[in-house]
Every structure is written in C-alpha cells, then in structure tokens.
Amino acid sequence: MKRTLTLFLVSLLWVAPAHSDNVFVVNDIRVEGLQQVDAGNVFRNFPIATGDQVDGAALAAATRQLFRSGFFEDVQLVRENDVLVLVLRERPAVAIIRIEATRPSRKNSYAKV
C-alpha cells in the first residue's frame, strides 16, 4: 500500500510541472490583421486583459467570444513568451454589390440636345 501511494505521489509531481507550463501571465496584448474594425471593438469583446493569468480553457473561451462578435472570419491566438498576439481576419464589410441597369425611356432621352 505504501509503495502504491508513493508511486502515485511521484506521478503527481511529474504531471504538475507539465500542466503549469500552459498557464501564463499576459504582459501585453498585440493585435494583427485589423483593417476596418476598430481596436476598441476587439478589446471590448476580448475578456482577457494584461496582467491576467490564463490557461488553454480561458484562451478557448476568449476565442469563442471574439467569433460571437460577428466581426471576424478567423481568430488565432499566438503566445510569444508573455505576449498574447491576436491574429485576426475580418469578415468582408460588403458581401455583394448588385448593379442593375435601367433602360431610359424615349421621353427622357438625353441624346436630343
């Protein structure tokens, strides 16, 4: 029984450092890929701020929240040391432009000058 408990405790020591590597404190947030959307809209819809301690679950939730804003087609979060980089691709501002021509009536013909 003592041996099993000892092996269990040793295995916990090996697992704990591997899990703690995924948690980090965000010292800065950098946004890349903005063209039309204001950076203020990004930070209003992004729940993580500088100084927050985040893990994989918090980053996944933040990504979902940015997608729900409706401004972005693609959202990627990249960690560069303690800097969180938001790589964003915006949705098109105008999806389709339809131009329809009308025939001028004979009364309003501009050819007669």
From TrEMBL:
An annotated GO cellular component: outer membrane
Chief site of localization: membrane
InterPro entries per the UniProt record, alphabetical: BamA/TamA_POTRA, POTRA
Signal peptide interval: 1-20
Domain POTRA residues, every copy: 24-91
Pfam families given in the database record: POTRA
The protein, known as: Omp85
Name of the coding gene: yaeT_1
